[in-house]
Design brief:
- There is one protein chain.
- This protein is mostly helical.
- It folds into 3 domains: about 130 residues, Fumarase/aspartase (N-terminal domain) (Fumarase C, Chain B, domain 1), CATH 1.10.275.10; about 210 residues, Fumarase/aspartase (Central domain) (Fumarase C, Chain A, domain 2, Up-down Bundle); about 60 residues, Ribonucleotide Reductase Protein R1, domain 1 (Orthogonal Bundle).
- The chain contains 17 helices and 8 strands.
- The strands form 4 sheets. A two-stranded antiparallel ribbon has the order 1-2. Strands 3-4 form a two-stranded antiparallel ribbon.
- Helix 4 packs across helix 6, helix 10 runs parallel beside helix 12 and helix 14 packs antiparallel against helix 15.
- The longest helix is centred in the middle third of the chain and has 37 residues.
- It is elongated and about 100 Å long.
- The termini are far apart.
- The model has no long low-confidence stretch (mean pLDDT about 95).
């Protein structure tokens, strides 16, 4: 064991612990969810410490040996070492101070080892005075949040795009499948199955475009603003230099905050990004629900499409196959929608110069991004790409729908068309059987419906 001291007193820590006393206190205080920090939050905070050390050495305010040791320790963590030393629960004290200190202490203790000192020998190199130099949790933690989200965004965007591409490919495959449209869950005017799938693909692409737009504001950092945005205890030129250094390390077009006080006070940018995630989840869930309806049956439902069978659907009913992947994606979407509600409350909970609810916001956004990306990847591979059209069923619905009377309304008028639709339903016949010759002659009927079919098959979007 070794002893360490902070402003509250002395504690004993195991010699093998790379973290220090403040992390140990947090570990004891917050045995809440057993969820460790997201690896990207660790990476992001370590990158901030590395950028700060490089900047401080360049400005001449940090001893070069100390700075190089911090940078080397940071590189070791970024390469995957010491990951078991980041132990603070995601539900922790406000603002993320415990996470920040966990990173500070791990880097300080490893840097001490590299300099030939013992862990905890903080008079030689301190977590607060050297690793955390010119920083506050209040500018470091939200910067880490931004970097982590920006790092995960491409994987989510790629997953949504691939899923939308799969729907678009199915839209092309189903471009010639005539079917009855439905509004209010009632028969409506005809369309092709391809047009329905094309609409689904376009919706997902539009939702991810909103997410891309929300991403842009996350490139603005309050790093260098220290506690409240004023930059107290930072050397001249630090703010500009550290943001530039971090941009080089991450290869992202990061920029200084136009107003560091605003960025420190408000989690608006995170709320906006999470709202876009929620919108994406809503649209994903809506499409999945539609596909479940279209696949319902096979004998008592719509059965317009067949989904790939991925597992038996019942422990009691032999041969039953359920829309398992779509159900999974619905549940993922519901979870994201719920997380957005938590984030909305957290964004509102900021008080005066700081919003302390950042750990919850970071967890909710990153968790939502991860499950959306993973869920969509599985959905695409195991469901969307293998959907098949039940062409005969679709054609039967197209042919038998009384809503086809709408196509004859310009010829016979709305009231006559309504009468025709009622007769089709009551007499259990097709539009053609009832319409000719009671409402139109065969030539007129053929002209109207040939034009309709040609029009539908020509519109693949």
């Amino acid at each position: 064991m070794r002893k360490e001291q902070d402003s509250l007193g002395v504690m004993e820590l195991p010699d093998e612990a790379m973290y220090g006393i403040q992390t140990a206190r947090a570990k004891a205080n917050f045995p809440i969810s057993q969820i460790p920090p997201d690896p990207l939050m660790v990476d992001a905070m370590v990158l901030i410490k590395k950028a700060a050390a490089i900047t401080h050495m360049a400005l001449g305010v940090l001893d070069e040996k100390q700075g190089e040791a911090i940078v080397k320790a940071a590189d070791e963590v970024l390469s995957g070492r010491f990951r078991d030393q980041f132990v603070v629960d995601v539900f922790q004290a406000g603002a993320g101070t415990s996470h920040n200190m966990n990173v500070n202490e791990v880097l300080a203790n490893r840097a001490l080892e590299l300099l030939g000192h013992r862990r905890g020998d903080y008079q030689e190199l301190s977590p607060n005075d050297h690793v955390n130099m010119s920083q506050s949790t209040n500018d470091a933690f939200p910067t880490a949040m931004r970097l982590a989200i920006l790092a995960l965004h491409p994987a989510l965007e790629a997953a949504v795009t691939k899923a939308a591409d799969a729907l678009a490919e199915r839209a092309q495959a189903f471009a010639d499948v005539l079917r009855s449209g439905r509004t209010h869950l009632q028969d409506a005017v005809p369309m092709t199955l391809g047009q329905a799938f094309g609409g689904y693909a376009a919706t997902w692409r539009r939702a991810v475009a909103q997410l891309q737009d929300a991403r842009q504001s996350l490139l603005e950092l309050n790093l260098g603003g220290s506690a409240i945005g004023s930059g107290l205890n930072t050397p001249p030129g630090y703010r500009q230099a550290v943001v530039k250094q971090l941009a080089e390390l991450t290869e992202l077009p990061l920029r200084e905050a136009e107003n560091a006080f605003q960025i420190t006070q408000s989690l608006l940018d995170f709320g906006r990004y999470m709202a876009a995630l929620k919108s994406l989840a809503i649209e994903i869930s809506k499409v999945c629900s539609d596909l479940r309806l279209l696949a319902s049956g096979p004998t008592t439902g719509f059965f317009e499409i067949t989904l790939p069978a991925v597992q038996p659907g019942s422990s009691i009913m032999p041969g039953k196959v359920n829309p398992s992947m779509l159900e999974m994606m619905n549940m993922v979407s519901f979870e994201v929608i719920g997380q957005e509600t938590a984030v909305a409350f957290a964004v509102e909970a900021g008080q005066l110069e700081l919003n302390v609810m950042m750990p919850l916001v970071a967890h909710a956004i990153l968790f939502s991004m991860r499950i959306l990306a993973a869920g969509l990847s599985a959905l695409t591979e195991r469901c969307l790409s293998g959907i098949e059209a039940n062409r005969a069923v679709c054609h039967r619905y197209f042919e038998s729908s009384n809503a086809l009377a709408t196509a004859l309304a310009p010829e016979i008028g709305y009231l006559k068309a309504a009468e025709l639709a009622k007769r089709v339903l009551a007499e259990h016949q097709t539009i053609q059987q009832v319409a000719v010759p009671d409402y139109v002659d065969q030539e007129t009927y053929d002209r109207v419906f040939q034009s309709l079919v040609i029009d539908l098959l020509g519109k693949t979007e």
